[in-house]
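Sample entry (246 residues):
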Amino acid sequence: MNWDAYDAALFDLDGVVTPTAEVHMRAWASMFNEYLERRSASDGVDYPPYADQDYFDHVDGKPRYDGVRSFLLSRGIHLPEGLADDPTTAETVCGLGNRKNDYFGRVLNEQGVVPYPGSVALIEALHAGGTPMAVVSSSRNAPTVLAAAGLTDYFQLIVHGGVAAELGLPGKPAPDTFSHAAERLGATNKRSVVLEDAISGVAAGRAGDFGLVVGVDRGAGAKALADAGADIVVTDLAELLSGEPV
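Predicted structure, serialized as tokens:
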């Protein structure tokens, strides 16, 4: 791939640089299924349990509370929005989102995180070549995860969910967080590469008319990523170190 054709690389984190998407999936499953079990008992309704496909359909790549809201609506459940500082016991969208974050933190502390070797190889190569890089993640945990992976120093900028909220930027599938990162790195959308494993993130890259949108298939499916707007789909970022120019 001819990286000289681009001025910036914008990486999603979970599922692209680190395998923490799996940690998120387990945290979401634990939180939602615990909630649905209690809700079924109280409502007398047999709500279908949360499954892996729900992660890709409703949660992956979105800001945390958007993911909660989307999944609950898929089960016909409506909760009050609540506030970002709601306790984890609150039966609100924010309360459930905060509860999920507790699950995620516990798993991350217990298991740590090791980045994908192919992703590290690409990041090191781009760093050596002087390509500015940013992490653009819906997760407010992005700085912690990146530090745990030992990769913070490679990135000039981290645009995470907290930053987006402070700046009033809509989350993926809107392109605004990627566009903000490109601008901060001194690049245009047309001269920037988006690297994403989530359908919502790929859609954001396409909506922003970025120069190249790379779909990383970690389970969403190559066709789904291509249909969402990926120009190319890979299963490992090391594939972008060689081959014909894109």
